[in-house]
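User: Some background: our group keeps a shared notebook of sequences we're curious about, and every so often someone picks one and asks for a predicted structure to add to the entry. Today it's my turn. The entry only has the sequence so far, pasted here. Could you supply the structure so I can complete it?
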Amino acid sequence: MGMNATAEQVMTEALGLSPSLRAFVAERLIESLDIPDAAPLSAKWKEEIRGRCAELDRGAIELRSADQVFAKAYAALT
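Assistant: Of course. Here's the predicted structure to add to the notebook entry:
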């Protein structure tokens, strides 16, 4: 299933944006998929999310896979 011309144009233009602007566009697109009845994120949560994303962008923190996290948690319990 191919994209229509408008979607292809939007994708081409979006991929030409800086990484921070692409992240902003991606965030807005993902937010648009949220369930309408869901409570909106508070300003404090949005600030927390942006802060964590900034830490990732700076390389200040490193992501770990869920498998690694669960293995460490399981090992701590046994």
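Suggested note for the entry: The mean pLDDT is 88. The chain has two domains: 1-40, 41-78.
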